[in-house]
Design goal:
This protein is α+β, with helices and mostly antiparallel strands and about 100 residues long. The protein has three helices and six strands; from the N terminus they run βαββααβββ. It is elongated and about 45 Å long.
Length: about 100
């Protein structure tokens, strides 16, 4: 088992809109990316479990070949800039990804 922090060179989050977040996992090695893509190792269920959200809040999981990236779009708990929002830019929301492990 390998932690995502061992195989990704970038793990980040950012706003996709005031109501959505984009999570990026950009992998270091082509082989790891292709294995994860062919096995569909990152799924809406995996992300929902990691973030403790309903699976229908995970709007997409995209494997983006040119960057060896796995991109996830999910609903924000609170819209950006609204009362109670603690991260206007969505840049501190990637934490739950750091605990993910994969059989590579």
């Amino acid at each position: 088992m390998k932690r995502i922090t061992e195989i990704a060179k970038v793990i980040r989050s950012k706003n996709c809109s005031p109501f959505q977040l984009t999570l990026d996992m950009i992998l270091e090695r082509e082989e790891d990316y292709q294995t994860m893509k062919s096995r569909r190792m990152v799924t809406p269920d995996l992300i929902a479990k990691a973030y403790k959200i309903p699976v229908d809040w995970v709007e997409s999981v995209i494997y983006f070949d040119p960057a060896k990236a796995i991109k996830v779009t999910l609903r924000r708990r609170t819209s950006s800039g609204s009362p109670g929002d603690t991260d206007v830019y969505g840049s501190q929301q990637h934490g739950p990804l750091l605990d993910l492990t994969f059989d590579l």
